[in-house]
Design brief:
- There is one protein chain.
- By secondary structure, the protein is mainly alpha-helical.
- It has 15 helices and no strands.
- The longest helix has 36 residues.
């Protein structure tokens, strides 16, 4: 058995390994996005100048933007700048891509964070209740989770908006207010988008928690703890739930990626000025530096969250620290 220092050393090695592994992952994502934007038909210059542009003006804009350079040269130049934190300039408005992303990223993080909290709290709660109360309650929760998995986020968002914002007036129709500007309005405005985004994920978490919790409650050590007089609440929370959270936490990375993808749709429903709107307009306008920079930032976020989850997974599961 390893002591505390040995476990800390193993966790340090795990973090270092994940960080080293993140570099080729980011490089591969960047290369793939850069290559795909290179294959998109049409020229960004034509999107900037419009249908009435002359060949001479198109050639001039392409030269100004560096689009007349070979693919390999453009790729090396972009990678070199990205390593220094320079994501280039937007084709459409000549603003730094990093500034555009910094302006939109807080809204997306607020939405994804709210959806993840809703999915975690309600998913785990429903899963634990289903495992502890087999029978009618378990079947009812199973029906609710099946419905949650089947409902599209955008449809559920529209229903929530029509009922609670339009009909009842409990929350504003236009959802997002910056946190620094008005924390109370920010919280109120993010309730419905977070529920719409997090409901399908909560259903998935509930099913995972229910299965893991039921398996944990059937373990022999649970009967032993109960036999020696350990209170039922402590057995459930301190031992069964802790062990059940290991597989649930392991799948949180996948849940997060699903939430990020679905958040772009939910942003449209609730008029949240986030990364989804920025990416949509950039793809339509062939503003490729914004597309490349936004995808790179999202990849960094996903890899960073996965690193945090790996550390949490190691803290919950001693077997990971002992490997």
């Amino acid at each position: 058995m390893r002591g505390p220092r040995g476990a800390e050393a193993m966790m340090g090695k795990l973090i270092a390994y994940r960080l080293v592994l993140a570099l080729p992952q980011l490089a591969l994502v960047s290369l793939l996005v850069f290559f795909l934007t290179y294959l998109v038909p049409g020229s960004p210059a034509a999107a900037i100048l419009g249908a009435g542009a002359t060949p001479e003006s198109l050639a001039q804009v392409e030269s100004d933007l560096g689009l007349d350079q070979p693919f390999a040269e453009r790729l090396v130049e972009w990678f070199g700048a990205a390593l220094t934190g320079d994501l280039g300039l937007s084709y459409s408005n000549s603003l730094p891509v990093s500034d555009l992303i910094a302006e939109r990223l807080p809204a997306t993080l607020s939405l994804v964070g709210g959806g993840l909290v809703f999915a975690g709290v309600f998913g785990i709660l429903l899963g634990v209740l289903a495992a502890l109360r087999p029978g009618p309650l378990d079947r009812a929760i199973n029906g609710v989770t099946s419905l949650g998995l089947a409902i599209p986020e955008f449809w559920f968002g529209l229903i929530l908006s029509l009922v609670f914002a339009v009909q009842l007036g409990w929350v504003p129709v236009v959802a997002y207010t910056p946190l620094a500007e008005d924390p109370a309005a920010w919280f109120t405005g993010m309730i419905l988008p977070s529920i719409a985004l997090g409901a399908p994920a909560a259903a998935m978490v509930a099913r995972q928690t229910r299965g893991a919790m039921a398996k944990s409650l059937r373990a022999p050590y649970i009967d032993s703890l109960t036999a020696v007089g350990v209170p039922r609440t402590r057995v459930v929370v301190r031992y069964a739930l802790k062990n059940a959270m290991i597989p649930v936490l392991a799948s949180t990375g996948l849940t997060l990626r699903i939430l990020i993808g679905a958040s772009f749709v939910v942003e449209t429903v609730f008029a949240v000025p986030g990364m989804g709107e920025l990416l949509l307009h950039s793809v339509i306008g062939k503003d490729f530096p914004v597309v490349q920079g936004a995808v790179l930032v999202v990849a960094v976020l996903v890899i960073g969250v996965n690193l945090v989850l790996d550390v949490g997974y190691g803290l919950l599961d001693p077997k990971v620290r002992s490997q």
